[in-house]
């Protein structure tokens, strides 16, 4: 515990008045501190000099919560912007270190942090003016999306209020495109080449709803929707997803992993695009299927359920840690056909033994992840052209290895959550050129088997946030020729 945390804990006010704590949460999370000292909660530093002070309804002086929140967001950003770890991991770590924060406090910190990551380049441009630590100005800008104007202003020094009013008046259209959209130049150039680039980029810069998927082994969507609407999930406005027959879309930040239907394995968190991908693989009862890059098992779970827990479903990955995260999910799901295997990146003997045996092989390849910027906006700052080139070499290698496992007449599905042609169409074209025994199957037709509302132009599956409301996904279905029978 640091000094400020100790001070906050030993505060007589906190000890005496739990009621005051409740009022604090209810009234825009303001801290009540009758001793009148300007001191932040949970170890963060004090408000900026000159920040406004106000009185609560019971007449006690109060600390303006936005001042506290600015310092909290500044503190998290200080860690995230080192780019050492993914932003969600750093944020979770920071929140664990501040256990006294309530759900609302956490939501506000997370909301502001992710807003800054989405608009980082533009906010850095704005932060070039003004005084004091630049991270504080980034935090203030992030909190514009969280607090009303008055609440935020109450936590700012006068100079900061003037600076904020000035930057918020800047006409976005007057900014160069890459700054306006907050993209690094290399990514701005690549995305600009795609169809309807502006709509796509704008959609990628918005936050995403949360999709869950019903487990068809345990329930069905109408039953689950009814259950959600009759219970506490109602306030998250559950609606069926438009394309996947198993998806339910929730608004806000539902704590799904604490819900009984999650613990019982009736639902799983999974973006609709990812559900559609499993549908595209279309495994059948009794088949042998390989999920070659199974990771934490998101797609494996639906593949297993579509096989009605029959046949054999290998969940391969080079990462033991990721596969370990999949195990509790497999246990909750009730699947008994999954065989998780940690493989080595090259010359794995178990992979070799499966040569030519699998009816379906899914390669959900490691990729830039740029289709998931709605959820992982830090990826645009963590990826760069060199990392992309390395990733492409890995993708080509995995595609070759996975393809060897496909049986004659079987199918290989190559997928990424990237929007870049070099990770998608170009990889498939290069693979097909080297492997004439594989031919491209029109994914837009295959997908109709399960997702009848989804009309695509084919031959690839290409999902986009601006067009389909999903993360960006790409997939290609390839079929291995059966050998000619002797005449
Ligand atoms: C996009 S993620 C997979 C996500 C997973 N399919 C899901 O739905 O949760 C890519 C995975 O590929 C794995 N990977 C990387 N190199 C690999 C290789 N050579 N062979 C198999 N898996 C590999 C990574 O560890 C990572 O888990």
TrEMBL record:
Residues 200-481 form the SAM-dependent MTase RsmB/NOP-type domain. Residues 1-58 are annotated as: Disordered. It comes from the Bacteria. One of its GO terms (biological process) is RNA methylation. GO terms for molecular function: RNA binding; RNA methyltransferase activity. The lineage of its organism: Bacteria, Pseudomonadati, Pseudomonadota, Betaproteobacteria, Burkholderiales. S-adenosyl-L-methionine binds at residues 317, 346, 364. Residues 45-57 have a biased composition (Low complexity). InterPro entries: MeTrfase_RsmB-F_NOP2_cat, MeTrfase_RsmB-F_NOP2_dom, RCMT, RsmB-like_ferredoxin, SAM-dependent_MTases_sf. It comes from Paralcaligenes ureilyticus. This is 16S rRNA (Cytosine967-C5)-methyltransferase. The active site is at 417 (nucleophile). Belongs to the class I-like SAM-binding methyltransferase superfamily. RsmB/NOP family. Residues 20-42 have a biased composition (Basic and acidic residues). Keywords: Methyltransferase, RNA-binding, S-adenosyl-L-methionine, Transferase. Pfam families: Methyltr_RsmB-F (PF01189), RsmF-B_ferredox (PF22458).
